[in-house]
Design goal:
Layout (H helix, E strand, L loop, with lengths): L1 E4 L41 E4 L2 E3 L5 E4 L2 E5 L5 E4 L4 E4 L5 E5 L5 E6 L5 E6 L3 E7 L5 E8 L2 E13 L2 E10 L4 E10 L2 E7 L2 E3 L1 E5 L5 E6 L13 E2 L9 E7 L6 E7 L2 E2 L4 E4 L6 E5 L4 E5 L13 E2 L2 E5 L3 E6 L2 E6 L7 E7 L2 E8 L2 E7 L10 E3 L1 E4 L5 E6 L4 E6 L2 E2 L6 E4 L5 E5 L2 E6 L11 E5 L29 E4 L5 E6 L2 E8 L2 E10 L3 E8 L2 E9 L5 E7 L2 E9 L5 E8 L2 E5 L2 H5 L2 E2 L2 E3 L5 E5 L5 E7 L2 E9 L5 E6 L5 E8 L5 E7 L2 E9 L6 E6 L5 E3 L2
Antiparallel strand pairs: 1-18, 2-3, 2-20, 3-4, 4-5, 5-6, 7-8, 8-9, 9-10, 10-11, 11-12, 12-13, 13-14, 14-15, 15-16, 16-17, 18-19, 21-22, 21-27, 22-23, 24-25, 25-26, 26-28, 29-30, 29-34, 31-32, 32-33, 33-35, 36-37, 36-42, 37-38, 39-40, 40-41, 41-42, 43-44, 44-45, 45-46, 46-47, 47-48, 48-49, ...
Length: 699
């Protein structure tokens, strides 16, 4: 321990900052911007804690009496638990600090990383000038744009001491403060002012950091002690005790922790799970302790209780359970504004807002270790957006939590992006995207995100038609529950979504029949995991689309209907958008002979003399593109037509007995891949069919 005679430091009243240059020994009066490094507080060595402040091993301030700061790998603050904002210049100096309330402090630095200007949102401004030794020699202070005063500094060496001569002059010429401050090894040793000469004793530790301060000339001087802790103290013997200290605001006593007889203000104290129990957390050693039988009214200010019962070591987060109650501790505290937790499969998700900063924690496999008194809790995500999910592959389920709350997706539906990530629609609104879904392992916790237009490249939307569609049902890596999902006909099941399709090289190729929740479905042609060709899509609302697809998007001629089969739109689609409306005449009821609409080169309905009816597109007066043909005997075909007016391509044919074939047609006849459902027996047959409607081989 060393003693120095030090005068009381007169300081500027403002907030200060660093990548900036700090020279405590030779320039102790230099202004500092926003303080967030150990050097800003004139601390040396491998400091861990001092005066209620905690630093990481790089010297970054991480905790300061209730405010916790978070940094990136470059040592820049990414945020704090008050949601304050920080801006940096290219050299790493904080140039703007903004409170959540909106008030700001702005800082400007020169090319030597010295603060030359600062301004607050309240109108206070300070401009600084330096000498050739990078020491402040002048400060000009303005208030609300008007000059208030100037401060001047000059420096001389007297033996080992640095003497700083200071004088203040107000804008009206009136002289203000004048005095001299003597510094030794960066600390003030004497102060000469108009009221007299003052000396102060400062005791420092072997790292040259202050541990005590008091007036040298008063026998009854009040001591201002500082307990410093260092990372190099981790393995040193320490005696930890729980006790009390006198609260400055009253005569009452408050709980405190003492290490080797000194009060340690960096120690967290929280209530325990058991009655009259305190939990003590030492962040230096990352150790949780339990202290029993804490009844303050039975104790005096001098009571000291040994802290020896270790709960958990080497972890800053902990779950502590007793008698069905539990507390989740983060850095020793459970002080949060709001908190939500739920189970995600076997895991517990804990989302909490510390002041205004949301962070997510997890206890893996909680349900299987619920009887353990102590459980390891980990930080799952520092992001304010907290969306996570798991898949239960054995049950074909998945679950989502958003900021610690389960999502009710009983009325949800799902659509898939090109990479297999599902978009979750809640109440018909695209809300979440589950990332990495296709390769998710059983009960693996993975991130989701809020939907942000990912379907824009995979959908078509026509005004008021409810035509949002998926582009793909990528089978690669999915759970094949039946058949051959590599080179044949197979079934893939994901949650409640069932896909029966033909596969080639592990991708859907040929035809696909997909059933979604809430009576939504698709059937039609596929190519390399994309809807490609003619297809029929129906939403859970009952609206539907019949028409062309390309690379997963509506492309070519097509039309949409509501659940009463009333035409909503009809026309030409390109890259998922309706670019040319062709159904205006039909929807307006324009009639020409047996035609309603345009039965020459457009969209219309034609009533044949034999009682048959066709609704769809025409070209050169013939059926073309896509449409629906209703025979007088009530059999129905919906699907592709070529320029000769014949059924060629994918379509759906309903027989008189209500049996249904969905598949390929050639020259007006069933011919190729498809699925036949027989109404009388209920049997479903899939494979390759001949032009008589009989299955001739499996695929």
């Amino acid at each position: 321990m060393k003693n120095l005679v030090l005068p009381l430091l007169f300081c500027f009243i403002c907030q200060w900052t660093l990548a900036q240059k700090i020279d405590m020994d030779n320039a102790p009066r230099n202004p500092i911007g926003f303080k967030h490094k150990k050097e800003h507080f004139f601390l040396r060595g491998d400091i861990y804690a001092s005066s209620g402040k905690i630093f990481d091993k790089k010297g970054n301030l991480v905790y300061n009496y209730g405010t916790r700061y978070y940094y990136n790998s470059n040592g820049r603050i990414t945020g704090n638990n008050y949601d304050d904002k920080f801006e940096y210049d290219s050299r790493g100096n904080i140039t703007k600090f903004q409170y959540k309330s909106g008030s700001t402090s702005n800082y400007t630095f020169n090319n030597k990383d010295l603060l030359v200007y600062e301004k607050t949102s309240y109108g206070d401004e300070k401009t600084y000038t330096y000498d050739s030794n990078d020491r402040v020699i002048k400060a000009v202070i303005k208030k609300k744009g008007k000059k208030d005063q100037e401060r001047f500094f000059s420096y001389v060496k007297k033996g080992d001491s640095l003497v700083v001569d200071m004088s203040y002059i107000y804008a009206n010429g009136r002289k203000g403060f004048k005095g001299k401050s003597y510094y030794l090894n960066g600390f003030l040793v004497k102060e000469e002012v108009s009221s007299g000469t003052y000396r102060y004793i400062v005791e420092v530790d072997d790292k040259r950091n202050k541990i005590d301060f008091y007036d040298a000339d008063r026998a009854d001087a009040k001591h201002f002690e500082t307990f410093n802790r260092y990372y190099s103290d981790i393995n040193k013997p320490q005696k930890i005790e729980y006790g009390y200290h006198k609260l400055t605001s009253s005569s009452k006593k408050g709980g405190a922790v003492y290490i080797n007889g000194k009060r340690a203000t960096d120690i967290a104290i929280s209530k325990g799970v058991k009655p009259n129990e305190k939990v003590v957390y030492d962040g230096l050693t990352q150790t949780y302790y339990a202290v029993k039988n804490i009844i303050p009214e039975n104790h005096t200010i001098d009571t000291r209780i040994p802290v020896t019962n270790v709960l958990m070591k080497g972890q800053p987060y902990m779950n502590y359970v007793h008698d069905g109650k539990f507390i989740n501790y983060v850095h020793g505290y459970n002080r949060v504004k709001s908190r939500d937790f739920s189970f995600l499969g076997p895991h517990m998700i804990d989302y909490r807002v510390d002041k205004s900063l949301g962070r997510t924690y997890i206890i893996y496999n909680y349900k299987n270790i619920k009887d353990q008194k102590l459980k390891r809790m980990e930080l799952l995500s520092p992001d304010a957006t907290s969306i996570f999910y798991i898949r239960e592959l054995d049950k074909e389920n998945f679950f989502i939590v958003d900021k610690g709350k389960h999502i009710d997706y009983k009325n949800a539906r799902f659509e898939y992006l090109d990479n297999g990530d599902p978009v979750i629609f809640v109440n018909e609104k695209p809300t979440y995207v589950l990332l990495g879904f296709r390769m998710a392992k059983n009960n693996e916790v993975l991130k989701g995100k809020h939907y942000s237009g990912e379907l824009d490249n995979n959908q078509t939307t026509s005004t008021n038609t409810d035509t949002t569609t998926t582009t793909t049902n990528d089978s690669s890596g999915y759970n094949c529950v039946k058949g051959d999902c590599k080179e044949g006909w197979g079934r893939v099941k994901i949650g409640e979504i069932v896909t029966d399709a033909t596969f080639k090289n592990g991708a859907i190729e040929g035809v696909a029949y997909i059933t979604y929740p809430e009576d939504s479905y698709f059937h039609g042609q596929y190519k390399n995991n994309r809807r490609h060709g003619i297809g029929y899509y129906q939403w859970s609302s009952g609206n539907s689309y019949v028409g062309g697809w390309k690379d997963g998007k509506q492309h070519g001629l097509g039309y949409t209907m509501n659940k009463e089969n009333k035409i909503i739109t009809a026309g030409l689609y390109e890259n998922g958008k309706l670019i040319q409306e062709a159904g205006v005449n039909y929807k307006s009821g324009k009639k020409t002979g047996n035609c309603t609409g345009d039965c020459v080169d457009g969209f219309g309905k034609y009533n044949y003399s034999n009682g048959d009816v066709y609704l769809g597109f025409f070209k050169g007066g013939k059926r073309f593109g896509v449409g629906t043909y209703l025979w007088k005997n009530k059999s129905v075909y919906t699907g592709a037509y070529t320029a000769d007016g014949k059924r060629n391509g994918y379509g759906m044919y309903t027989y008189v007995d209500r049996s249904v074939f969905k598949g390929m047609f050639v020259n007006d006849r069933i011919d190729g891949l498809g699925v036949m459902k027989y109404n009388s027996s209920g049997n479903v047959v899939q494979g390759v069919f001949n032009n008589k409607g009989s299955k001739v081989k499996d695929y």
